[in-house]
Amino acid sequence: LKMSWFWLDLPLHLLMATCLCHSIKAPTTSSQQSLKGNLFNFYHSLILADGKETTIHLLKDIPKRYYFVLEEGRALAPFSVTVTPCDVPIEWSILVYKSPPGKAAPGDHDTQEVSKSHKASSMVSTIFNYKGNSVETYMGMSSHSALYLLEFLSTERDTHITVYLTSDTTSGHLYPELPGDPRIDVIGIGHTTVTLAWKHSPSVLQHSEGIQYCLLVNEKHNYKSLCAAETAIRSSGMKLPPTIALSLSPYLLEPQQVMILSNSELSIINKVSSGEVRQVCMGTKNTYTVPNLSPSTQYYFDVFIVNLLTNASAAYTGTFARTLKEPEPKVTELKDGKVIHVVLDGKKQKFYSLQYQARHKKIHFTFQLCRGQIRVHITRNGKTVASENLSGLRYFSLKGKLLDTYSVQLRSTEESNSSVKVLASPHFHKPLFPLLPESLKIKSFSKLRTCRSVTIAWLGTQEESKYCVYRKRIEEDQIWRELQSADRCSGPESRHKSEKVLCKYFYDLNLQRAVTTETIKGLQAGTLYLFDVYLFGPSGIPVRYHSKVVKTRKKC
């Protein structure tokens, strides 16, 4: 059985006239070759090979017609046509033209006196039609030499489709096979995760190499085909790789794309106006937990079985799920002048809520960031009055009414542990935290370094305060850990007594001269030391300067 496709964009009556001029007789090889040969001369550049998927572009309201000839090689000639809309719904149909029975004697053209209009009406019939955006396959059997006409129409907008026609229905499939039950099961839902499972494709069980599953996640709707998903993402301004199959071959990502490769899974996240569109290919695993979703959000999930060798794919029946609502954080009441130390586990508990009822019109909030990264959000009677990332010691002075209710929400912005000290008090309340200098950095003087001593300096304030200096010997590979894990709220009580160097009182009314220096002696040559300075205010609550690492000279 052989097959040829030829493009024809003519009105149907002209097509039929052309067909009648080459009246097909069953089975007359010479007349079939004549029909095929004449059309081949006109449309040679547009012949489509048997058994290959073809992309067809459709203009709105302009029908496009293709036809193919089935040449009889045995009693019954099976064939199939699969059409995949890649965007909007389309209309398509299959018409068949057959030679009238009893009129097919070879070379007997003179005896056919029936009018062309009568022949056209008696020899053309519609055997299939469809309207929609689902992938549809027609399978038929032809017992006579026949000409088949395929007509496609898009009434919504310009679009494109893919068409696969084959007369070889026994030697395998272009498209991977779907299981008998192609549904995707949602087997687990969390606040930020959804776990999916689906039945294996027979293609995976028979040919695991070159076949893999790819998952598409978005917040808009399900897609009935891979090319429909790609088209939707492109229409949002994205440029995609040739296929979502992601055969692990390198390509350049667009600026709006993020590629993540972990545990042999390749993920691509597209930032589009309607939210994130994620593409994940996980090999032949038929379960997957989608991570890093937003709480209380509905997501749509589509699984495609993809043949990496041909880029052909088949779609499972898509599903959707809504992630769980983020649990309401525990609300702790703030009391005047009482410091609360809040510790947030970045993985388990990312939020913490505090509440304060004002007994004065002016309120003073103080936040001392101890560790990690935290964002604070303050509302008064439900309206936002402050929102920012914390750094060091931060004051908020707010003015409202008596009995106003303030809510403070603290959120960790990283997965490691974060902690902060919080104080709420009337504006005129005596501050518990010390007055801070312009900078909390410690400076060292390279020219004053010796093999046995180091000179450091730090800024003071106009308020007489106590400063304590501590030192600690460390190794080269400990520097990063010491600096990153330092608790900026912890006081000298957490330090070993042997690390204490000295304590001194210092202030200057002229801030330009509020600088003090200290030479630390008794050190070892060529050794790394970590220096810390603690500032104590009137209440005794310490503030830790930024740690400084200095190495003594090796030779003097």
TrEMBL record:
<dbReference type="InterPro" id="IPR045805">
    <property type="entry name" value="NDNF_C"/>
</dbReference>
<dbReference type="InterPro" id="IPR056225">
    <property type="entry name" value="NDNF_N"/>
</dbReference>
<dbReference type="InterPro" id="IPR013783">
    <property type="entry name" value="Ig-like_fold"/>
</dbReference>
<dbReference type="InterPro" id="IPR003961">
    <property type="entry name" value="FN3_dom"/>
</dbReference>
<feature type="domain" description="Fibronectin type-III">
    <location>
        <begin position="434"/>
        <end position="542"/>
    </location>
</feature>
<dbReference type="Pfam" id="PF24354">
    <property type="entry name" value="NDNF_N"/>
</dbReference>
<comment type="function">
    <text>Secretory protein that plays a role in various cellular processes. Acts as a chemorepellent acting on gonadotropin-releasing hormone (GnRH) expressing neurons regulating their migration to the hypothalamus. Also promotes neuron migration, growth and survival as well as neurite outgrowth and is involved in the development of the olfactory system. May also act through the regulation of growth factors activity and downstream signaling. Also regulates extracellular matrix assembly and cell adhesiveness.</text>
</comment>
<feature type="signal peptide">
    <location>
        <begin position="1"/>
        <end position="17"/>
    </location>
</feature>
<keyword id="KW-0677">Repeat</keyword>
<dbReference type="InterPro" id="IPR055271">
    <property type="entry name" value="NDNF_Fn(III)_1"/>
</dbReference>
<keyword id="KW-0732">Signal</keyword>
<keyword id="KW-0964">Secreted</keyword>
<keyword id="KW-0325">Glycoprotein</keyword>
<dbReference type="GO" id="GO:0005576">
    <property type="term" value="C:extracellular region"/>
</dbReference>
<feature type="domain" description="Fibronectin type-III">
    <location>
        <begin position="176"/>
        <end position="313"/>
    </location>
</feature>
<dbReference type="Pfam" id="PF19433">
    <property type="entry name" value="NDNF_C"/>
</dbReference>
<dbReference type="InterPro" id="IPR036116">
    <property type="entry name" value="FN3_sf"/>
</dbReference>
<dbReference type="InterPro" id="IPR019326">
    <property type="entry name" value="NDNF"/>
</dbReference>
<dbReference type="Pfam" id="PF10179">
    <property type="entry name" value="NDNF"/>
</dbReference>
<keyword id="KW-0524">Neurogenesis</keyword>
<dbReference type="GO" id="GO:0007399">
    <property type="term" value="P:nervous system development"/>
</dbReference>
<protein>
    <recommendedName>
        <fullName>Protein NDNF</fullName>
    </recommendedName>
</protein>
<dbReference type="GO" id="GO:0008201">
    <property type="term" value="F:heparin binding"/>
</dbReference>
